[in-house]
Amino acid sequence: MLDGEVIVIGGGYGGIRLAKQLDEVARVTLVDRKEVFFHRIASLRAGVHEEWTTVPFIPYDRLLRNGRVVAGKAIGIDTDERQVRLATGERLPYDVVVIATGADYPEPARFLGTTTEEAAKTFAAHQENVAAARHVLVVGGGPGGVELAAEIRLARPDARVTLAHAGPELLHSTGSGRAGRRALAWLESHDVEVRLDSFISPGPDFDTYRDGRGDVIEADLSFWATGTTPNTLWLRLAGHGTWLNGSGHVKVDRMLRVEGRRDVYAVGDVNDVSELKVSPVAIAQADIAAHNIRAHLSSSGKHRKEPRLYRPIRRTPLIVPFGPADGLTLLPVPGGETAVLGARTSTLAKARTLMTPYIRKQLGYTA
Predict the structure, then answer these.
(1) Which comes out higher in pLDDT, residue 183 or 174?
(2) Is residue 248 within 8 Å of 162, Cβ to Cβ?
(3) Which superfamily does 116-227+317-362 belong to?
(4) pLDDT tens-digit profile of 266-304?
(5) Which CATH code of 3.50.50.60, 3.30.390.10, 3.30.470.20, 3.10.180.10 fits the domain covering 5-33+72-105+228-297?
């Protein structure tokens, strides 16, 4: 017997994990504006290589055995009536609602439109632009910027590629100076011009950019890998601004509930838990939230579960591919140190397939 209505708003890595975990114990409805799952980890390569154009798109139709997936846009949560409001006017009643709307990423790691066809056209346009560019500028030296610069360089060995980073070292957010030096060495050995301490802004003319020293860079194509924005504007517009902190993230307690609410949770990039916002973290949060939701739904029964507190992952493994056959892996080891592993580990774990077989299995498809 299924116990309670659970609405999961957002079908990203955390949303699909949580919906699948609860599918056997509750009546689950997953709401997402897209008609398919977007495997964002594969999106940077899809923006460069034609054969990867449709790889990031995986249907939702095999995710849930008992629940359902609704293609629609949530525009509000009525906590008095306990209903989620959709842009179509439909109202979905809930016993528990989960906000898993993720974050907005810069292109090409962005799903534009709502259908596979619309998003595929965007990726095809990026591929054409990369193929035709004389000089590509990538702004941002975090994991996404480094990975994108490597993909572009391998796809366009004849083009000029520049990576500009505002900080003093690459991959600074990882806390590993060694990893940053390894990334710098790979890029420079592949003739990528790396500019550190270089804050980039639009230049005086079209296709020009100015760095913090006043130097002008001419580039006919640019990508900005300078961070993400939580997808919470809809909550603010719906009157739930008090749920958000100054950066727009949803404030949650140690059980991943929205502060002051017993039946509203938030998981993944969208919440204010202080940790690296990567897919393994979203999945770990989804597992804790799923347990706590089961505890909430069965709180009056004889099989009552005790809720669990979420412990932020301060040191998480991280893989930065340099194309399909190279990269670096940051692996936390006891004592507070971080091991930096090279091409073989990175290729087997992520770089070659970009975790596509694993994610396809999560959605009920063969690898």
Answers:
(1) 183
(2) no
(3) FAD/NAD(P)-binding domain (3.50.50.60)
(4) 999 999 999 888 999 999 999 999 999 999 998 665 556
(5) 3.50.50.60
